[in-house]
Amino acid sequence: MVKAWYMDNDLSDQRLEHHRNPPEFVSLEDLYKKTGVEYFSINVNTYNSDGVLDKIKKDRGYTYEDEIVCSKECLPNYEEKIKSFYEEHLHTDEEIRLVLEGSGYFDVRDGKDQWIRIAVSAGDMIVIPSGIYHRFTLDTNNFIRAKRFFIGEPVWLPYNRPADDIPCRKDYLEKLEKGFVSAY
Asked: Which whole-number Å values give the CA distances from 68 to 58, 109, 137, 158, in the listed order?
């Protein structure tokens, strides 16, 4: 089950938990209210046959998927890629990830521009809304295998901060102000 918390400002190893002192955890309900990030629990042993993932894909219009493995052994230019994933950015489309093995962190900005760290592991599926500033890093296990989902052909172009004039960013800020409505 996914866990989320507000991050400290320590700039040491990005793969560490980086809890505030004392820790400030964020519930899934508050994570959604503060950021629009949605969470689904998927059984990685039965997702190919139980219909749960298929229903989510159908309801949300996900028509393309692939799989990515991030590890020193499997990812070309590993150090460079991990640094680029950790650069604060946004996308014009949702970022959807289902973790099949391993673990890592997605960091997202709340409405007060504070980092919330989301720890994901096998069975966690998160939907990061378009227009939100975020970043990704592996944890100290240095391994994750995940499915990526897209509506139509994949658009995988990050816009590094600042990108406040992009329409998806303006749309996101409007939703943040008015409150998010789940697409599911």
From this structure: 22, 24, 14, 17
Sign of the CA dihedral with 159 first, then 161, 166, and 167 last: positive
Q: What is the tens place of the pLDDT at every residue in 97-128?
A: 999 999 999 999 999 999 999 999 999 999 99
pTM over 0.85: yes
